[in-house]
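Researcher: I'm preparing a figure for a lab meeting and need a structural model of a single chain. I don't have an experimental structure, so a prediction will have to do for now. The sequence is pasted below. Please return the structure as C-alpha cells so I can convert it later.
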Amino acid sequence: MSQSFVLHWLIEQHRADRLLCLVLDSQNERDMRQRWLKSSRYEQYASVYGETVVAELADTGPFLFTFDQPDDRRLDALLDRPDSHWGWLASLGKGELKPWVRHWQERLLVGARPHQALYRFHDSRVLARALEHLPVEALPAYLGPAISVCYWQGSQWQSTDNPAPGTCPLPDSPPWLHLPMPEEPAMEIRLANAHRFLLAEHVQAYAGLACAQDPHIWLRERLAQAQAWGWLAPERLEFLLIQSLHTQALAPHWQPRPDETPDEHFDRVYQLSRSWSGEMPS
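Model: Understood. Here is the structure written out cell by cell.
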C-alpha cells in the first residue's frame, strides 16, 4: 500500500497554494480525532453535524481538519491503513473551510420525514462509488468548494479533480442518491440511521438497553434479522426496532411461516401486534 501517490498529490496541492483538508470519520477514529483537535487551531477544524438538526450526533459525526504541510506526521497512522475507511483528503481554496462545511450540511439528510437518513459522505467507500458513477457535469454539485479529492478506491489510491469548484445549490434530485450501494457501507448507513432514530424517538428505552448490553451489537443483530426477513423498508425496520426495544424476546409468531412472502409475513405480524396492543378489534 504505497503512500507515494498520496504524498505526490499533497505536494501538488500545497504548491498550488491550496488548503489541505482531512475528512475524518469521528465515530471509528475517536482517538485520532482527539489527537488532531489537541494539535489544531480553532479555525482549522469543524464538526459537520454541529449546529444542525443532528447536532446530538456531533461527537460521532465527521470532522474536517485543515493542515499546512503535505508531510504532516499526523497523517502517517492513517495512510498506513487506508482500508480501515477512516475518511479521505481534499484541497480547498484559502478561507473555504466554512463554505465547505455548509455544503455538506446541506447534503446530510436524505429523504422525507419520518424516514430521513444520513448521507455518509465521509465514508471513503461512499465517496469512491459516487465518483466512479457520477458524470463530470455532476461533480461541482457533489464536491462543492473542494478543488481536488484523494481517496482509497478499494485497492489503490485515486484522485479526482472538480471541474468547477465553488458553492453550488443542491439539485432537486441529487444523482449521487440514485446509485446502487454495496452491502457493507449500506449496513453501516442503516446502523447509523437506526441509532439516530432511537436516540431521537425512544431515548429512554434505548438508554435502558444500553445499560444492559452494547447497543451497537444489539442494533447489528436487529438489522441482520430485518435483512433476513426482507424488512429493510424504513417503516418495517422501525416497527422491528421499536418492538424489539420493548420486548426481551420476540414471540414465536414473529417467525416467518413456510412459503410466506416478506409482505405477507410483515402484514401478519403487524396486524397481530396491533390487535394484541388494543389498537384494533381482535
